[in-house]
Amino acid sequence: MKTIAIDMDGVLADVYQQFIDMHLAESGITLERNDMVGKAEAEAFPHLLKHVNSNGFFETAPLMAGSQQALKELSKHYRLFIVSAATEFPLSLAEKHSWLGKHFPFITWQQMVFCGSKEIIKTDIMIDDHFKNLDVFEGKTFLYTQPHNENASPGKHQRVNDWQEIQKILLP
Length: 172
Fold this sequence. Notes:
- By secondary structure, the chain is α/β, with parallel strands linked by helices.
- The chain is 31% helix and 15% strand.
- It has 7 helices and 6 strands.
- It has helices at residues 15-27, 41-44, 48-52, 67-74, 92-103, 131-134, 163-170; strands at residues 3-7, 79-84, 112-114, 125-128, 140-144, 158-160.
- Helix 5 (92-103) links the parallel strand 2 and strand 3 (112-114).
- The mean pLDDT is 95.
């Protein structure tokens, strides 16, 4: 059975919406996704480090539309691994584990990979929103569109815009 490494933040968890919601609650100002196109996340979100280091940020992030159903269907044909560079924000480890258990109960703890660099990941396919993770991967790569990568050429990676598109490509 082929294997897929799936990024969490920006692919399964809608961290952009989480940043937008937290910024609104804190400042009363609504950030628009269109204004973030082409900007690094740290530039798009002025309080990024404060938010990712606050209790509840990762545990309460909303789901990307269609991700639950897509992973259920993909799990019938592939061995799935959720791969997150969670050690960048060590406080996120327990929250990400809890979030995955809540939203993807069919993903076992053995399928959760919390790491630093993703260059060690050796699956057949990787779905991620960051070039730094895809560029060092040796298998088939899918670039999940987010504002920070929207203007960039996908290069050797296949761009995907949502979970319906991924299902159309990967499911028989």
